[in-house]
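In these records, each integer encodes one residue's backbone shape. Here is one protein:

___
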Amino acid sequence: MKRLIQYFLFPALVISANLCLRAQETVSLPAKDSSYNQICALTGESGNFPKKAQEALQQLTINGYYRFVTNYRHLPLSYANLENNKNNIFVGDDSQIPQLMLNISGSVAKNTSFGTDLYMWAPMTGQGQSENVKGLNLGISLYGTYSSPYGDFTIRTGGINWYSLSPFTFQANKGYDRYSIFERNPWDPNTKSLDTRYNTFYNLGAINQDERWGQQAFQGLIVEGNNLPNGFSGVLMYGKTQLNGGLSPLPNNSYGGKLKKEYKSNSISFNSFNNTTFTDSLQSRRIGFNVSSIEFKNKIGRFLLRGEIGAGRTIEQEQTNDWGEAASIKISSDIARKFPTEVHLYRISPKVINNSAAFINSSFLQATPVNGTDNTRPVLPLVASAMVPIGQLVNNRQGIDVNSQLNIGKVKTSFGYSSGVELEKLSSKITYSHPINSLALSHFWRWDFPGNVGPYNNLSKIYRTVYETVNLTEIDPVTALPVHKKYFNSIELNMKLKGEVFKKDYYIYYLGQYSSAQNHLSPITVFTEKALLRTYYHQLELYYKLNNRLIWTNYLGFERIIANYSTETDLVSHRPKNQTGYSVATGFDILMSKGAGLYIRQRWMDYKDSSFENDKYKGFETTVEIKIFF
């Protein structure tokens, strides 16, 4: 008993006495109210465990999403790398997309708030703890905002932050809203009404996207200043991008910023983005780039003038290369108030390189270390002379795009025209995509983004799609460069119809793309053998709203890709590429409860190149996705 008093009771009495003395220093009590409980009741103090905690936060909010996705694939006819894996079931998204994301935000005062993002990712590949390290897409992001009479200031740091400056400096391509919406993207949200996604696409030509849409991933420090005096705002950023940094411990960094001035409904800004990367541990080999631009928006009567004019250069070792020009100017107006039209003029020098811009590199192969070793890999997928959708910019090219909208009754039509030419003869290759089965085709290679794969080593995977390379045969034997410049033409047509059957809404969308690449100037797409390569894509979608909780989704796709004899031919058939692809798909959108959706997709595929015997696959893929927002 003595030891019990000595070791436990006596120290407790001493601590209680000290706490009471501290309380009496701040509160004057009547003699009759001298007990510990009475003192603590008046002061609200009780050592490390107060009975009444001080309010540290005025508001705390937690929200986010959980996404489960799995697919089963059966390919009785497939590429060689899948011969032993014709039946495959996969759980998770084979890219850097977290299954669970939590957004935690709060305020500590009326003018001060904070927030953080927590990502959780479980790919289950059997590689152990190492598989959970996926560079920029994991970690904790922290941001805070402080409002003052001089402006609103925000700091973002850590983890991954999705951000954009301008198309030439730091931004992802947004295009002209002509795309298929049958396959759901990881960033697609749930909506209160299931058909909101399809009704919005019908009315506006676009669907709601989360913060990642049109933005790039950045890890580091971002400081923003908005609502500054005299209409100014600004941004400073320092850190790493997904293509310059990642897991490499070598010194490499990206930095840039923006200074913007707004006046009435117009604006002008100065933007800059730069990178320096060392490719070896001794920091003796350096590569990088600098890009600076001026972006503007001006309303002149019924015309809206937007654009960006700038310059860029590359850095190799101790050599700083010459600057090249970059210009993109868009003029838009609502003709007769019924025919909104935009004319886009652009020119991007092959000397302008930027891993994180809205344009694709086709002129310069840049490399970066792999996990800190002296081995290097390309960080810019060198897509050679690319045939791309209208609106997607490519360096080493100049041209014109025309985009317009015409509505006749319930039929809404979006039309696009493009004509471009290379500035220099730098590549003896042409690349193109396979949009009909693009997502399923990308699943043939999980996790990585390999290049030069497939039965003829001419396929390269990028995020959620695959592009193919064809070689030209008319080349200079000394320089190995093409004899002629390449010219590109494209026509796109997106038609949308909404109606009712049995008092139930339906939506029908058609997307057609007709493109060609040739060695001569042409006003429109070349539909004859004079084209080096012709691509024709047709996609038809039907969505039928059975009730408020169920939508039936359907898809038909057809593609034809034809090359002429100025391109590489097969060693056996002695014929150039002649490809045909089909795709039939169906599925359901199911509203399980408020904020929770179930999405099922079943796709059948059949593809064959009649000239290249081994280039063929056939089968189906089933995808199930559950997404819950809270």
User: Anything to note?
Assistant: The mean pLDDT is 83.
